[in-house]
Amino acid sequence: MTAPTKTDSPLRAFDAHHPPSAEIIDKCVHCGFCLPVCPTYVLWNEEMDSPRGRIYLMKLASEGAAAMSPQWVSHFDTCLGCMACMTACPSGVDYGKLIEATRAQIERNHPRSLGEKLHRRFLFAVFTRPDRLRFLRWPLLAYQKSGMQALVRGLGLLRLFPKQLQAMEMLMPKLQARDRIPEVTPAQSAKRQRVGLLLGCVQREFLSQVNAATVRVLSAEGCEVVAPKEQLCCGALMVHAGEENGALESARKMIEVFERANVDMIVTNAAGCGSNVKEYGHLLRDDPKYADRAKVFAGKCKDISEVLTALEPRAKRNPLPMRVAFHDSCHLQHAQGVRTQPRQLLSGIPGVELAEIPESAICCGSAGIYNLVQPNAANALGDRKAQLIFPLNAEVVATGNPGCFLQLQSSLARAGQAVPVVHTIQILDASIQGEPLSR
Length: 439
Ligand code: SF4
Ligand code: SF4
Fold this sequence. Notes:
Elements: H1 22-27, H2 39-44, H3 51-62, H4 70-77, H5 84-88, H6 95-109, H7 114-127, H8 130-145, H9 148-154, H10 163-171, E1 184-185, E2 193-197, H11 202-206, H12 208-220, E3 223-226, H13 236-240, H14 244-261, E4 265-268, H15 271-277, H16 280-283, H17 291-300, E5 301-303, H18 304-309, E6 322-326, H19 330-333, H20 340-347, E7 352-356, H21 370-373, H22 375-389, E8 396-399, H23 402-414, E9 421-423, H24 424-433
Parallel strand pairs: 2-3, 2-4, 4-5, 6-7, 6-8, 8-9
Antiparallel strand pairs: 1-3
Helix pairs in contact: 12-24, 22-23
The structure holds iron/sulfur cluster (SF4) (2 copies).
């Protein structure tokens, strides 16, 4: 990408490289239907922290009537990118494209403080690199197994550390032995299709049991599963945070890896990654070498719940009597429009009783790196969600995204509620295997 240039008014905030689309901005008729589902508006009741307010700020900046001041930027930094406003909007305003373009503009044109820069650099250097996350497992395992974590938490020592570090510690999952995912897993019965599996970064290293369950279920349902070892990060965290160059590079590499794998379909089980890879066609639209390949790649991507509900079930579902509260991940329900499929999978298991969490349209506060860079807002949203889950008397909470998994686990623990959180596919896997759900 060549360095973009700024034009016209001295207040002009955006450079010429894909500013937020005026056409999309003008579709907003200011009706306010999106306000009640916007988590930041729900928290603070501030117009400029609502979708309508943010679109207005984009319009002002586009027209040269507002500069990219720290305050202007703060309203976009607090946006979770949850896309609840898109689902609610009757005028079809594609806020996702607007916020993605705005964030990329901010990262290019707004000078962040040294502290912010270093923090963001650290997050991207670690959370988008499975090799580095794997290396981190050892000190973290030692921290948990030695009893140090229990001591630090018990004595309240975390309060002595910066908020960002506290947030990271609280989100850390209980580490288990890492499940190894074979590069190719054969179908257990006559092969119906050859599918590729996107392993994710955090999920691969810290929640590998979810990938292992996904492979077992797909194989039991007649799919040959290919999980290329050389796949890296899909770029989701970078896209959602405005780091365009890193995201483009990740997308190109991912496309190359899965072209070599020669699969009929690419399965995602992390909603944040899924919503990103489905948009590769848009992300790589300017790249003559990759634009068409990106569209083909994106067209093959499906969430695990979409793949399984499209197949006639082959594997027997054994009874699993339990009450399950299902949490809709924003990147599944709003960004991918997948709401009924996970419920359908769970309802197909004898004995499973589904409980709906009120305010299901509203984000739990996870949102990529949001809970690491905006811990106060994220905690407030997590606490709100935990209070809504508690009265449901569920034995387990199911969700389809590792970010929500970690956020809910941490929020429920903070509220003193010992309700385990699992991925939806782990419940289906336990039923097919005829084993108790491991929590
Ligand atoms: S993406 Fe979410 S947080 Fe951002 S404006 Fe829309 S509803 Fe609000
Ligand atoms: S619902 Fe849509 S049109 Fe109405 S204010 Fe929100 S974004 Fe604008």
